[in-house]
Structure formats: C-alpha cells, structure tokens
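During the second half of the funding period, the structural biology subgroup turned its attention to how the target accommodates small molecules. The most pressing case was iron/sulfur cluster, which had performed well in the primary screen but for which no bound structure existed. We therefore specified the complex as follows and requested a full 3D prediction, including the ligand pose.
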Amino acid sequence: APRGDLTRTRTTCGYCGVGCALEVLTRDEQVTAVLPCHDGPVNRGHACVKGRFAHGFVRSPDRLTRPLVRRRGRLEPVSWAEALEFAAHGLRAAVAAGGPDAVAAISSARATNEENYLVQKFMRVVIGTNNVDNCSRLCHSPSAAGLTASFGLPGGTDVFDEAELADCLLVVGANPAEAHPVVGARLLQRTLRGARLIVADPRTVGLAGYADVHLRPRPGTNVALFHGLAHVLLAEGLVDEDFLRRRAAGLPELTALLAGYPPDRVAAITGVPAGDLVAAARLYGRAERPAIFYGLGVTEHLHGTDGVRALANLAILRGAAGTGRGYGLSPLRGQNNVQGASDMGALPDVLPGYQPVADAAARERAARAWGAPVPERPGLRIPEMFAAARSGTLRALWVIGEDVCATDPDADRVAAALTACPLVLCNELFLSDTARRADVVFPVASWLEKDGTFVNFDRRFQRVRPALPPPGEAVTDFAVVHALAAALGADLGCRTPADALAECGRVVPMFAGLSHERLDREGAVPWPCPDPGAPGEAALYRERFATPDGRARLASVPYLPPGEEPDDRYPLVLVTGRRWAHYNSGSMTRRGGNLRLDGVDLLDLNPGDAARYGVRDGEPVAVESRHGRAELTARLTGQMAPGQVFCAFHFPSSGVNTLTSGHADTVTSCPEYKVTAVRLIPG
Ligand code: SF4
C-alpha cells in the first residue's frame, strides 16, 4: 500500500482453536488495530484479549530475520543458500547413516493447513519416512482416537451454532472463559438465556459460578465420573432406547460394566458427592437437546482416550449425536490449527484425511497424486522421536514452530534428546529454547504474515491472509519446505498454498469441495466437503455413523488410576493449563501489552494448603516433583480444591515443564499434564 495508507486484511486468529475472524488494520507495515469481524462464523463481532491486542510480537526486535547455522558451537547468521545447503547435507548424512527412518519432523498447529500438507509430503516423498507428527500429540490426540472409535471421524459431531439450541450444557475439563474466551462467552450467554449448565472440573473455573451443578472430580478420575453419570442415566431410564437399538452397539457390555459404578463407589473414587452426581445426570438425561464441550482436562491423562470414549457414551446413551436432538460433543481444540494439522496428515500413522498408512489403497491413491511411493511402516510419535534421539537411532529432527523444550513434558529429557541428535533444524519466530539448541534455525513468518487456511475446533476451514510482510529475510514455512526439498534435488509441486489445498482435495475425497477461491467467497466451510457445489457437513452422522457398520460404539473401558498419585513426599497434585492473557510458551503474547495483564507464572493454591506448607500470597514458592523443579509466585485462591495446585506454562524461565512427567495416554502417547504429584517449598 502507498505510504500512509490504511490497509484492512481479513484473516483468522492464530492463537486458540476458536478461529475468530479478524480484520487487521495496518499502516506502513505496522499493525494499528485488530478488530473482530461481525460475520465471523463463531466470533460474531467478538474477540479476546489475545486476538485483539497480542500483536506487538510481529515487529519485535527479537524476531529472527536471518537464517542461523551452528559453527564452532555458536549460532551464526548465514545466507539462505548456506543454511539450506548445511541442512540438506546433514539430512543426506542422516539418511546415509540410518536410512530414511533416522529423520523425523514435528509439524505445527501454528502452521497453515497447506504448510502441514507440504511438510508431511516432504517427509513421505523426499525423505521416505512416516516420521512426522504434530503437537496434537500433546493435546487432543485422544480426541481423534476416541471420537473415531466412538463415531467414525476424528472431529466434533456438530458445528458450534447448534449450541445456540442446547437446553443443557455439560462443560468438562475445560476453562473456556480463559482458554477459549469467545466460546466461553457464548456458552455463558446461552446459560443466561435459560440453558442448564453442568461444569465438571476440579477447579472453580469461570463458568462454574453460573453452573446448576459443579462437579469437582479428583484429577485423573474422569472415567469413573463419566461412568457414574452413565450409570444413573441407565438406572433411571434416561436413555434413548430406540436410538440405542437402531444406531448403537455395545450396550450389553456397557450395562454390565456400569453395574460396578454406582454413585457411592464413584463418589469414593472421584470425591464428587453422590448427590451432585445424580443431580448432574438427571439434568443431562432429562434435557431435550443436551450438548457436551470438553477440553484438555479430559484428554491429557494416562487414560485420556478412555476418557473421551466414556464421555461420548453419555451422548450416545441420550441419542444426542447424529439425530439433530442435541449437540453430541465437541473438543475445544487448544491451538489455532491443531485440527487442521492432523486433518492434513502430519501424523505418523495416517495420510491426509486420516487414511491409514497401513492401508495399501490409501498409499496407492497418495502415491498416484504425488508421483512417488509412500512408505508403509507407521512412523514415530513425538515422545518416541525424543527417545530415539537419546538412544542414537534418530539422527535428524526438524522442529517447526514449536518450542518443544518449553512446552513438552519432562523438559530436561527433551533437551537431552535435542543435544544428542546430530542434526536439529528449527523453524522459528524467535530464538526459543528449542532454537538455541538447533544446528540450523530458519526465520519464518507468523500467522499475520502468511497465506493459507486454518481449521477451527468445529471443523471449519477459513482463510488466513498476510496483513504484513515478514521481517528481514524471514519467509513462510511453506517456502522453507519447498526450498529444502529443492536443496535435496526434489520438487514438491503445488507452488502456491492454493495449489496445495487443491492437491490435498485430490488425495482426500472429503476435502475435494474446498478451495481458496470458494473460501474467499463463502468465508467458512466445514469438512467433510466432498462437493464444490454443496455445503460441507455441519452436523455429522444424520444417516449413519462413519464406523464400519454405521453404528456408534459404546465403550466399555474400566476406570484405571492416573500415572502418579500423591504420597507423603509429594502430597499435592499439580494441574497445568492456560490463562486468559497468554498463549502456551508466551513467545508471542509476552512481547506486547498482554505482559502488563499477566506478568509471571503463578501457582494457584488453596489457602488451607498454603497455611499447612507455610506459603504466603504473592511470595516465591518452589515446586518440586519427581522429575524437576520450578520457581513460581504463590496465589492463594478458593478456586483450588485442597490438595491441588495449578499453574500455566507461559513463562519458560519458571521451568514448569521440568515438573511434568513422562506418563502418557496408553493409546495415543498424549502426555499426562493434568496429574503430577508435587511438594512445595516456601521461598
Ligand atoms: Fe478468538 Fe481464540 Fe483468538 Fe481469542 S485467542 S480472538 S477466542 S481465536
């Protein structure tokens, strides 16, 4: 734009998975304001403090503007040609020493769909391995596994607008008032207009103050809680028998299992009074149109996939999915594009569109589109990549847009993995903890500087458009993948993001109806969308579930305890999560005004526990687990139940993720961030 002119760019927020449509105002390559769009499909004129105000990072002097290469132990600025040649040489050496499976990539929920598509294609076609994963591994991988097992597809059963019609909201293991504020506001609005509200969360999260019933299960006991609710639904005849007969499978087995979860026993396991459990089950069971929303409090557990399936049981028992008589259930996705990164096949066991790599027909379809064979053996998951690096079998790791050293659990072991790996490549905005350990750092564009699409928590594709050019020599992740392929003598085709989405539609029938041109015209389109002339499917499963026999699957999974329990040495349970002003490691939100809203990582604890352990409000406190130690500032609050403490991980210097354990979901390897036994040492 000519100097001094104001430019308006419509794009999609790059923070949380709500996917707010935003208008970014710029002048002379500076953001002057970010405004929520009134026709945004979820936000409808609203945005939170992150989307509106946390944009100062784009012109931060800390931004990386030149590629860096490690020489004589130090990262030095080099040209793009030198950086790419260094990386290509290292990748060739890794493959020569250990074969294609000696290389792995961690793709990113912060990258666009088109970038994720290109990364997985690079790994499968250029390197020849399925060793590609993304950070959904660390948050909602149990949702993908659990929802697929229960219903057939790895997304929420309906789009969010249906929640406007819900007469009972069950919000579980989520704090949308802080982590998904626009959804939190709409759920509150629905409650104030008459919907009944049940909140199930150990903490008194924002919505809990408006709840008809607040269930506070001990962290790690969700499966027992959900079975207790299901027990009451069955015992009191609050199930849809016709639906169960026609469209569900597994009722006899579940009925037998639930006999072992009467309210009194569930109360003993979870700490939730039996009366509250029964009251919640009756509210949910008697509603005409119940809806379930859940967050990482359900998934980030040793038995996270079982938790998703046990929660899905409730919707199936009520006939609230696939019938239009309710909302089913919806995972509140954490990162902006965590759904899309997985949809695009940045996963070790599935190709784009969740087509299993073990399926010869799916490999053949992709191979035809890509003009190259697709490797058959499923690749490594993120924790397995780190283990392989520590053991010496992984010789090159490409980390794209994730500060794994700050955000992955048991952080000291992650750092050891990067130190042990002979070649670490890193795409980053800033010199993060991970970038500091890399051998090559590629400076890349942020979400305000790139072109493509994101998929939000309720499966809607929306356009992402550049409001600014990236600083210095930074380029998009899309351009880096192409350039590295070229340095290895390969051509990935699909020159533009629009080409990449079009090619993805040729590989995945359920994305065939999507294109940039269509999204520019229509704004947001949900998947599945096989036909360019028809709307995507907002509400799934109206005819049949996407399981082999078309029936929803009730899950008979027993309650099993979490990986860690408190004991005399570590008497408290730590739960980690997010706060309203910041986002994950805080690399973007800490570089601007949001820092004034929230300036340090706080440890929330109950006043009774504070008195017991000699901790004072506002004073330093050390937290120790069996895995590490963090230094925080204490905040005494009645929001916390006795015996539990809570903190975020927005300030890596506090070391919160040195505390968290290596325990992970037995199905998907999602870390158990929500249950760590700790002790406190007053500062
Ligand atoms: Fe919307 Fe989430 Fe962005 Fe806030 S962070 S503006 S709720 S998408």
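Two results from this model are relevant to the next phase. The CA atoms of residues 91 and 98 lie 11 Å apart. The pocket of iron/sulfur cluster is lined by residues 13, 15-16, 18-20, 43, 47-48, 50-51, 180-182 (CB under 6 Å).
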